[in-house]
Amino acid sequence: MKKGVLVLVLVALVLLPAIASGKTETAAVTQEPAKITWMLYGDNTPTEDNAVIRSLEEKLNIDLTVIYVPEADYMSKLNTLIAARNLPDVFWMDGKKLDAVEFKDQGMLMKLDSLLESYGPNVMKEVGDSLSKAPVNQGDGIYALIPGSINYTSNLAIRTDWLKNLNMDMPTNLDELYEVLSAFAHNDPDGNGKDDTVGYVGTMANLRTFEHIFGAFGICVNMPYLMEDGTVTTYMKAPLYLDAIKYLRKLYQDGLLDPDFATMPLMSTFEKLWTGRTGVFDFQNVGTTNNWMPGRYTEPTPPTFGFAIIAGPGGKGGAIKQYPRYTYYNAISSTSKHPDKAMQLIDYLYSQEGDELTYLGVEGLHYEWVDEPNGKYKLLGQFTDPATYRADGAFVYNHMWPLVNTEVRTLNKLTQDGQTFARENSIGYPNIIASLEAVGEYGSTLTDITKEAFAQLIVTKGNVEAEYKKFVDRWNNEGGLAYEKEATLAYAAQLAAEKASR
Amino acid sequence: MMHKPKIPVHDTSLLKSRLRSDIRRDYLLYVMLIPGLIYVLMFKYAPMFGVSIAFRDYSIFRGFSDAPFVGMDNFIKLFSRSAFIRALKNNILISILKLVLGFPFPIILSLMISELYHSGARRFVQTAVILPNFVSWIVINGILYVMFNLSSGAIPGILKSLGYAGEITNIMNQKETFIWVIVFSHIWKGAGMGTVVYLAAIAGIDRNLYEAASIDGAGRLRKMWHITLSSIRPTIVVLLIFRVGEMMYAGFDQIFAISNYLVVSHADIIDTFVYRLGLEQQKFSEAAAAGLFQSAIGLVLVLVTNAIAKKVDSDSGIM
Amino acid sequence: MESKKIRHLRESSLDRFIYIAICFFLAVFCFSTVYPFWHVLMYSISNSKAAMSGGLFFRPRDFDLLAFKMIFKTSQIFVAYKNTILRTLVGTTLSMALSILTAYPLSRKRLRGRSCLSMVFFFTMLFNGGMIPTYLVVQSYGLIDSFWALVLPLAMNAYNMFILRNYFKTVPDSLEESAFIDGANSFTILWKIILPVSAPALAAVTMFYGVYNWNAYLDGVLYINSTGLEILQVYLRKLLASTGTLNSLSGIDGLSEAASLSEESMKMATIAVSILPVLVVYPFIQRFYTSGITAGAVKE
């Protein structure tokens, strides 16, 4: 009996892996399509064989394997593959987290100039002029490609239905914002007779939820700051920083800022918006007025939103300006056996057709246009279910966002207009493209100090000025001064280079 | 034949021949060890060349052999970071609290569970206490938020409805209270898994001992103390030694998930600090130096504890 | 039944008091440990919108299985389940075999060089080469992107091995001695004498390995490239984030109800999906160390 069990276990041990690997050897056929591996991050669950991959394979005559890594672990995987000299043909990387110049200098990136000439018309059309601005491309040629799009700007979305109920106008400055927050919190804006609304909801889990309040003080939260004398430093050292903090302090003390802003998970802040607890929300409006509308909002009538710009002492305000992403790379590894095919794949992703395929899926199978010029489409049959839709490859490979054009085109009008409005009113910051040594050396420590200061200064019962000074001293001593020196020089050089090229 | 009387040996050839005969007698035991040894050599010792990057200026682009040797530079750099020193101090305090308050708890819990008459109840309780182990810290953080947040949390809600008028604070936001959140949530989460080994040891105790003690009129407490606890003592000692060896690891997953910027000055530990250093700044060499430091301290602590255990009882300990 | 009553009668009032105190404490503690899991479960079977109203959960709000429907909608989850079940079965079996074979010799006091050999294993608990070097080694054995990459690198854990060794140590020499005299060799002794009396420890360690294999995540990310070998934890992690902040598509015309499913509901459902199989298997292993009181006891 026991022996039987043992034998069974042994047999299972030998057989199971064979079943598990599920690999069938493909017979060697002459002229088989070139094998290309493409690694990207993404948090979707496509099946191994799906319509979008098949479509790409047919289109480009390749045998495409996608390595699809959860976003949170992408850098760990890429680091490991670099160390193991085992890179996929095509991959994405964040040049701010990885020393791409060193990457190139060690000969691990394919030089792309001649490939671009032969196979990269779409890439050249979209980003040809700005490729050389990327630090990795400033040596002897082009080694990485950058996206043709820029990120979404934040919008301060305010519930216009609530404003109407309370007979108030869209706030335009900090005092008016205070009034609105106070009325939203105390005057039953939704008219349900319950004291169930709060004022400002923001979270340190994503500091973008505070962009406009800092914007009113001319500060880009969590970004470098350009002093009047040309010094580049942390936003924490901006002259009006403490005023911004004092404004938030006042909100906090008057019960108009959610007291758990330091601990609240991001999802909980969204839920407060979706369930009608808060009517003021600072985030990319692609969420507030497009993707979450109306499905996520729980009230019987979905809310209506307008976008506000809050002016501060300088009479201006707005969200953080978004710059072209010069360190957001797509590259081909130097070990690629089919660089020509790899480049064709990338080029296709930069084309309108490729963007539509990876974002919307296969036309006629997954979706069809209802009103193409106005970006209206509908999903077909079983694919109206997002899980089925994504499992078949639609949407999931669009995360490298070379173009994002299809997505922008298909946003609703309110959202598109909101984006234009936010862009026109955004606040710039010294966006240093080059990698700084001081960031590599002290980066996370310095960021930690500014975040600690942010949280601590808002809630402290002690002397704010004195505590602020202590944080600044700490920042200076922990490598901040070195950062300031290097950043100032780098930014001056960058400006000079831009001037010269003009 | 198992217990050789200890006789003073003067003749080295006698010693050698005894060694040889012992090995010949037990050669099958050595054969049994072969798979395990091959395994650790292949999968545990082979990667240990990586430890050397603690003494090198390593970059993933250049590889191991090309990384220049820099001696103790990485350690010096690490210890000159005041955030590391802060993390080290927090780490030691949190670890000691977790050890002193947390180590005995699963033992007490196991004793309690083993006291239950009804085997169904025993099984239910043991399953219940193990549940938190399967829920990740991220989720537990969400539940802590649901419990303690000030605007809609359960605890403030209960306090208010009871008519409590004083100031209510969120214990997750306060430096003074947060360390206790760390310690007690750790104890709570790990207790169930901790009972497994102790219960297995208790299950191996000869029931006749209890019968005999009952006949002698021993009460519940005395039986727990003299029979249960003393029978599982070797297990306790071994687990304690392991636990002491982990002193430099204060619970990355937990603190990474539940910490926030209001309490970070009291909650940052070596592992969370090193995580940021390694992943966000690509400082693999410094991270390796920190890891080596943790391991080395762990080794010293284990050897000391083991020696003490052996002194008290020559048969206990791990080596 | 009868004997229990008698036992109650025989007990002193102090003993009774202690017993009640223990029961009370355990009840409170169990409530605190069961509640979070209950919260997760109830949340996962509630309608997203109703669930968002916050607070604690004692029963579902607007019963709704949408999150589970979404999870089981695509075929990939079955691929992921299959891989995780296989790795858990194969991995645990292999781990147990290796650990038993190592623990037994090291538990024998007479073994020459025991301390040294123990040290060789113990050392691996404290020191490790790190993520990248381990990857390089696994790669050099040609295991990357194969099923064995999920099994072999984690095959033995020194901590578990020492727990077994410690238990084997408590088996009295006398038992072994008589078998030795009868001419049995070490393998027979291990199989026929040591293992049968060590059921509680074997069950405990099996559970440790099983849970560890079931929950392992990072090896699935690092060592596996192909979707066909994806494990459950990696699949669930992606699924969880896929409903993520900006990616929900509820704005598209003609989209079904699924658009209203919140991340939180999805998270709770994925946790339930990953834990429930463990809870189904758990009692079968557990009985060996909670009710094995006499079954595993050593009669001298």
The fold-level CATH name of the largest domain in chain A is D-Maltodextrin-Binding Protein, domain 2
Give the number of helices of chain B.
16
Largest binding interface between chains: B-C, 94 and 111 residues
Q: List the uncertain runs of chain B.
A: 1-5
Relative strand content of chain A: 5-15%
Fraction in helix of chain A: 40-55%
Give the fraction of residues assigned to helices of chain B: 55-70%
Class of the largest domain in chain A, according to the CATH hierarchy? Alpha Beta
By secondary-structure content and strand pairing, the structural class of chain A works out as alpha+beta
Q: Name the CATH homologous superfamily of chain B.
A: MetI-like
Rounded to an integer in angstroms, the radius of gyration calculated over CA atoms of chain B is 25 Å
* Rg for CA atoms of chain A: 26 Å
Oligomeric state of shown chains: heterotrimer
Q: Helices and strands of chain B: which structural class? A: mainly alpha
Tell me the layout of helices and strands.
The complex is a heterotrimer of chains A (502), B (319) and C (300).
Chain A: H1 2-21, E1 34-41, H2 51-60, E2 62-69, H3 74-83, E3 90-94, H4 100-105, H5 113-119, H6 121-127, E4 154-159, H7 160-165, H8 174-186, H9 211-216, E5 224-226, E6 232-234, H10 241-253, H11 266-274, E7 280-284, H12 285-291, E8 305-308, E9 328-332, H13 339-350, H14 352-360, E10 367-371, E11 376-379, H15 386-391, H16 405-409, H17 413-424, H18 437-459, H19 464-501
Parallel strand pairs in A: 1-2, 1-3
Antiparallel strand pairs in A: 3-9, 4-7, 4-8, 5-6, 10-11
Chain B: H1 12-25, H2 27-45, H3 73-80, H4 82-102, H5 104-115, H6 119-130, H7 137-148, H8 154-161, H9 175-203, H10 207-215, H11 220-231, H12 233-245, H13 252-258, H14 264-267, H15 270-281, H16 284-312
Helix pairs in contact in B: 3-16, 4-9, 4-15, 5-9, 6-9, 7-13, 12-16, 15-16
Chain C: H1 2-10, H2 13-44, H3 48-51, H4 66-71, H5 76-107, H6 114-126, H7 131-140, H8 148-151, H9 158-169, H10 173-181, H11 186-197, H12 199-215, H13 218-222, H14 232-242, H15 263-290
Helix pairs in contact in C: 2-15, 5-9, 5-12, 5-14, 9-12, 10-11, 12-15, 14-15
